[in-house]
Amino acid sequence: MSRKPTLPPSPSAGHRMRGFEPVFGLMKQSVRAAGEARGFAVARLLTHWAEVAGEDMAHKTRPVKIGYGRASPGGGIGATLTLLVKASEAPMVQMALPVLKERVNAVYGYNAISHIHLTQTAATGFAEGQAEFIPAAKAVKAPDPATRAEAQAATGKVSDPGLRAALEQLAENILNRRRP
Length: 180
Prior knowledge:
Helix content is 48%, strand content 12%. The protein is an alpha+beta fold. Helix 9 crosses helix 10 (161-178). The longest helix has 18 residues, at 161-178.
């Protein structure tokens, strides 16, 4: 007697009604596993560092790892957050560590971090530590008037202004790509 092949379960009606799912929802487990391998129990600390540390501090620092060791006299459970810092910014970051520690612990909801260690090199090597944290903004060149006129002519019949503007931008991008 042969066995019938088992089919995967069909999606529930609620699952089908949701439509598209956010990309992060599909890769949440992978990000969590990668973060936990570096000691980050809360992935939000990595993914939303600018919100946790503040824009100014995020430009100067990057979280590298969290090490869990013995409990320290300063309180908490003894976790140490290691931050990568530019050498020129280290003294200013050092002065702001108490505030930064409070903000990081607010993400965890308790005193999880008892110490913040600053390093001027990346955990994996020296090359990563030399790179800029925030890439420089790309220079925006002025649009070519002939290209703009051609894009406006192509989208002139569209009545919706928002759609027309989006299509004009798309047409300009396509026309600019063709021209070297």
